[in-house]
Amino acid sequence: MLEKALKGKPSYWIWLFVLLSLIGTASIVYIFQLVYGLQITGMSRDVSWGLYISQLTYLVGVAASAVMLVLPAYFHHYKEFKRMIILGEFMAIAAVMMCMLFVLVDLGQPQRMLNIFMYPSPNSILFWDAIVLNVYMILNIIIGWITLQAERNQVDPPKWIKKVIYLSIIWAFSIHTVTAFLYSGLPGRHYWLTAIMAARFLSSAFCSGPAILLLLALLLKKLTEFDPGTQAIKTLAKIITYAMCVNVFFFLLELFTAFYSGIPGHQAPIIYLFSGWEGHAEWVAFMWTAAALAILSLVLLIPAKFRDNHALLPWTLAILVIATWIDKGIGLMVGGFTPNVYEAVTPYTPSLWEIIITLGVYGIGALILTVLWKVAVGVKQEVGTAT
Amino acid sequence: MDKSRRNFIRLASLSALGMGAAPALARAETASAVYTETTEAADMYGPNANALEGTHWGMVIDTTKLTTPEDIAPIVEACHSIHNVPDIGNDQEIKWIWSATFHESFTEKHNHYLAEEIHERPFLLLCNHCEHPPCCRVCPTQATFKRESDGVVLMDFHRCIGCRFCMAACPYGARSFNFGDPRPYISQINHEFPTRTRGVVEKCNFCAERLAKGEEPACVEASNGAIIFGDLDDPHSEVREVLKEHFTIRRKPTLGTQPSVYYII
Ligand code: SF4
Ligand code: SF4
Ligand code: SF4
Known about the structure:
The complex is a heterodimer of chains A (387) and B (265). Chain A is mostly helical and 387 residues long.
């Protein structure tokens, strides 16, 4: 089926070329990082994780979100999603791939990466995260490939694949729970040490992931013959709405605990993020932007007449993605490390090099996604299931 | 294999062998195979008869005797010079022992009206060699581990992948990461101790290499009696005697890590 990726309009090739040049540029910067070490990043002794690990966190959510299509389709036999499912599964593959690359670029000694498996340490959550992410990727590759092949040959997929699909549904929850445990089990990091972290991660994943998927699917509709189907778009938008409501609600719960209890440690990171601390206010504008956009996205999602307006929907989704990205893709990391363990502020802002490497990893993800979706749409066009 | 390799590395770090901080794991593996085959080497590097013995090393820092930056500087210098700790000088710095204010050191003990003298006093900070160290709990490779025989929390620089999970987990900021190559920043290399390579984490090792030779930690030696070191498990040890007589506090006791470093205020 991969041959489908080898035929395309000039615009397809131009897009691939753009991605490859981005990846090439980032690779050169990464080679510098290998030679000079992580000193080229904005990280420091006190803020020892930054943009890379926070992208890992965000993208695990995107990967897990495929379940929002798979679950209704297989547990509730919701037929409308059947056409779009493959897009979700392929997006999960691209997202997990990016997750692993973000771990890799964050390592000080990447050539020793396999030590994680050579000295298995079950008490380390990172060990489990590496395992669940790898398994999740394999599950999605198997499911995506087998079902697409069956679709192409116009036969029913083999029966056993259903069991694998059920497993992948549970697995999707596990990858994001384990990723939350990376943070929520660390003593002394108040912003992270909260039992609701895994739930918050899942809720934010289940709104942001499907939002990204739907945005890209709408783009696909513009560019190709593929049509996710009006009913599918509507249902997915509804799922996104519920998940975003829960996501915002969970954040408000955090605010309540921190500020009603009045415990300084719990309040400090939130105060730093939203109004600054000891003269440091690096992220205040970002956080308020996120808050405003989160509310705006709800205003545009909750009333059905806005939500079902498909000219407005892409904007709403973009707003939601930006809001959740700031919250989880950067705020979470900064808030965990600031104020630091001495209750002082060591400000963190990513360096240009760090940003270029990050974009490069996103470029690789986009490349994988483009090729996989090209194959999927190609097959659907061939057998006439694209619309 | 695990243990012998680790023992080898511990020993290698005492010998010239460890100096280059061999980056490739493979190299350490072969070297360790050679080591086990060579009985001569076993004699040479066998346990030192003078090695200090204890089952839970701990420390009491008498902060009333260390009141000025001039009291602190030689202690930090003693540690950093023998352990090849580089002087980087920005927020990616590396430090094994350093000083901070009361507020920074004891974040759970804020008073509105702190005695002026305490407000001014510097407090020595270092790894607490916790009984329940979160750093070891989170390490995905066991590159940082608590030595069961004496409770010292150690690092295997050859195994560390530089993921920095341990830095996020340590509530005391005791760990430093080599963001770049540290060697250009070491003013005078001590060839008795390994230098580190870029991309690994390091921290105070309670002078494990000195304990093995029967010497007290360098900071203790340089402190003119202000730091007392000994076996917390031994009720007759000097540390325990001091703890009996003085009121002491530890950093962030509510987190359950059980630090082995006590402070007389
Ligand atoms: S002080 Fe930090 S580095 Fe040292 S043992 Fe405790 S948790 Fe680990
Ligand atoms: S940085 Fe090294 S010591 Fe720390 S958790 Fe990672 S592998 Fe373990
Ligand atoms: S015990 Fe040794 S390694 Fe630790 S701070 Fe003191 S001198 Fe440095």
